[in-house]
């Protein structure tokens, strides 16, 4: 029952926020988001007390085709649900100082999106998964379109529309893949789908149909072209939702809905896919080095990071899977903090152009410290969360192929180059005319950074609880993937 | 059978009411009558009866489609009260003809004999010819009526020719006897030629490519409400008849294979041509006309697999498409009567002025584009899954690619409503329109959340 509560509470919360009116919307959203977070932590307690068996709920929903409202939360799903419920209140908190037009719609869309995201991670019926997957697209589309911050409206419309069409195109092919599987298995249930043994030729079709959807969402090179412009044009909160949580849908989908269902096709085509992911890593990093715009720099760095996560997943090793899960959480947390830092800079100075900034460290020491920690976490310094994740990921890729892991490992060096150089240009040196009156962090901003920094170090020093929790789920997936 | 008789009677009552000067009550009388007929119709559920030597066969298929058509007719009636307010003296004539259109549609979903089938098509078409030209003083409406009449009567001629060939070969109009003949292996060229001619005429009536050229012109010229009648009621009835005829009569081991290529080509063309032409339209009405052609293409997928019992998928698609169309057209009527234009620019900034209308149209567009959790998504799902089940994967892939293209023009309207600057003209909306729009949107949501109740009816 608690599971149902955790799933549906954001939907109810969205309605309450909408009714609360524009003035109260943000506080109500923040409060309800925190309640949701507490509820999901209780879910975790329930989970650890009852052993590591998944928490399930099944109810007949549609009898023709045979679709049930089936939820199953194992360690992997729970970790991602916790990530979602942790980040959503933080994202709301990042906007607390800002005046937002039509705030009630804005915040209720964010909560609606949270509902869909929790649903994506909790669903154990392929069709239900698909519905939540699509449902997540509508709120973020409107958030990015209506509250976007780019100057040129026409350009924003085009960028957001491109994002929408790309993801919709991908997911329709996923739908075809699921329909095909249903014709063969007679059910969308995840365990039934794991159990069917299709001939390799059919697996290939299913593999590519479903892969397209995930590869676009993640995004894997060369299907990433929607991403930088969308991140740039969306409001900060929208970029955080997209990069922090939404692209994890694709990575989670790979693990849950692709590898175990078409194992032989996966084994056959992994060499191609993994090369593309590694190209994405290098490509994202190199372009990030050249970026003059802060938000685009984060966007391209994000492309490099998720490329490594995808490579780890396709290495089909236990370390790769573990690293991918840890890094999904780490990247989610870090990228939200990075986007928030960029948002603070752009609100106070009115620019995101790196060359126009500088000298903030002397004026705003608290902000400089917080930003430094987040940057170091992003470049995977030991004792931070990303270090654990990237280490395991590279280890996984190494087990798959030594040379690939050498190339993929460049991401750490290149990451240090663009992140530290960015920090140097923005924070150190002489103050410019835009930055000399930079105000330091206030309480609400500090309240965003503190939990993030705690999470960075806790996960970086003691990741064992998370690893224990995800172990059985990942083992199960790995067994089916290596059939 | 009762349904058909009472509906005809209601049409006559409608004309008589005019004579005894009860014009004010004509709309309520019609609506009450249709609701009562809806109830009578539902009571036939579960029976399987033939009337008048098999002229009319009432089974679940006909009851389900009749119910849908009656509901659509009720919506259209509620909308017409305001639509024709400037021509009150004509109101009861229009309503009577509208109800006769419904009669034709009902006959088309419950025929058991080719004669009845032809009669249904003619009653439907002739009523629509008149309605298309019902704005007497508007040149474009006249043109639409004339064009539709010329093209339509030509198609009726071809249909009659096809029926004559089948009769000449078999000596019967009865569907069951034709089916029995088909089961024997002896087929002649005349028999196939007859089927081919009937096929052409039906493709014309459902506006499938390459017989679609009349539709956009006729739709654009006709009054918007009549366009809604043609695009929803008439099209759904024609598709229901199409499936009924082919699945009963020509469902032997040979005929489907014989026509498979024609069906595939027509389906692929209809979806693609409709969609790609809709991309470049700047008039909302014309865009809906072309999107209607591509929707006909999706329904053609159901027809294409008629040998595999696709009636459920066709019914579901018809429900979803019909209801979303009513909502979209009702919003279009409100906007165009307030702004005096059918262009997509007329929708600019609607979200700021009338959030309810903008929200409703957004949901209708999302449903037509097939995005969950709205009804249109499951409609596409059932159609695709029938296609895959019957081995038409390439067509399904074409249909999926087209669904992506369709998003472009449906979102053009959404963009206009939410991101463009609005003009300052106030938008007023009649309560009857709010009711119909709200009700349809509620249905679109409910059917989308609980599709199971509608998916396995037949």
Describe this protein with a few key phrases.
heterodimer; A: 483 residues; mainly alpha; 20 helices; 2 strands; 3% strand; globular; B: 458 residues; two-stranded antiparallel ribbon; 19 helices
Element layout with pairings:
The complex is a heterodimer of chains A (483) and B (458).
Chain A: H1 2-20, H2 25-49, E1 55-62, E2 67-73, H3 75-94, H4 103-122, H5 126-135, H6 137-146, H7 153-185, H8 190-195, H9 200-217, H10 227-233, H11 236-258, H12 263-290, H13 294-314, H14 318-349, H15 360-363, H16 365-378, H17 385-400, H18 402-427, H19 443-461, H20 464-481
Antiparallel strand pairs in A: 1-2
Chain B: H1 2-19, H2 26-43, E1 49-51, E2 56-58, H3 60-83, H4 91-110, H5 114-132, H6 139-170, H7 175-183, H8 189-205, H9 214-221, H10 224-249, H11 255-278, H12 284-304, H13 311-339, H14 350-353, H15 355-369, H16 375-389, H17 393-419, H18 431-449, H19 452-455
Antiparallel strand pairs in B: 1-2
Helix pairs in contact in B: 1-2, 1-4, 2-3, 3-4, 3-10, 3-13, 4-5, 4-10, 5-6, 5-10, 6-8, 6-9, 9-10, 9-12, 10-12, 10-13, 11-12, 11-17, 12-13, 12-16, 12-17, 13-15, 13-16, 13-18, 15-17, 15-18, 16-18
Plain-language structure description:
The complex is a heterodimer of chains A (483) and B (458). With 483 residues, chain A is mostly helical. Helix content of chain A is 76%, strand content 3%. Chain A has a two-stranded antiparallel ribbon. In chain A, a hairpin with a 4-residue loop joins strand 1 (55-62) and strand 2. In chain A, helix 11 (236-258) packs parallel to helix 13 and helix 12 runs antiparallel to helix 13 (294-314). Chain A starts with a helix and ends with a helix. Chain B is mainly alpha-helical and 458 residues long. In chain B, strands 1-2 form a two-stranded antiparallel ribbon. In chain B, a hairpin with a 4-residue loop joins strand 1 and strand 2 (56-58). Chain B is globular. The A-B interface holds A 61-65, 67, 130-131, 134-135, 137-138, 142, 145-146, 153, 157, 161, 164-165, 168-169, 172-173, 175-176, 179-180, 182-183 and B 312, 366, 371-373, 377, 381, 384-385, 388-389, 396-397, 400, 403-404, 407-408, 411, 415, 418-419, 450-452, 455-456.
